[in-house]
Amino acid sequence: MKPISTDKAPAAIGPYSQAIDSGSGLVFLSGQIPIDPATGSFAEGGIKEQTRQSLLNAQAILQAAGLSLSNVVKTTVFLADMGDFAAMNEVYAQFFTEPFPARSAVAVKALPKGALVEIECVAAR
Fold first, then answer.
1. Coil, strand, or helix at residue 96?
2. From the CA atom positions of the chain, what is the Rg in Å?
3. Whose CB has fewer CB within 10 Å in the chain, the N or C terminal residue?
4. 2-124 maps to which CATH number?
């Protein structure tokens, strides 16, 4: 296993890696919340802006691994409010093209630091 990290995405806020290259062709990204790495604060706005920043963070980590969003085979989207699903989905659709990755989207009671969304990915080399 090889850790992957970049300063173009927020640093881990706990005992985990931004991503791990499994050595078997799969790269596992930790969940990305909408922290702008330049400011250390959440992206300003609501669910759309937070979704965009979460995906930009994931994109930066993938780039550090020599990959792109087109390598993503599975995502999991955690929402603080399932009522935000349509707005999240609108932004999400701007980042992925066919064939779209498999995806799960679930509502959770709360997310780290009060985020509205968190997105994790699995990518294939």
1. coil
2. 13
3. N
4. 3.30.1330.40
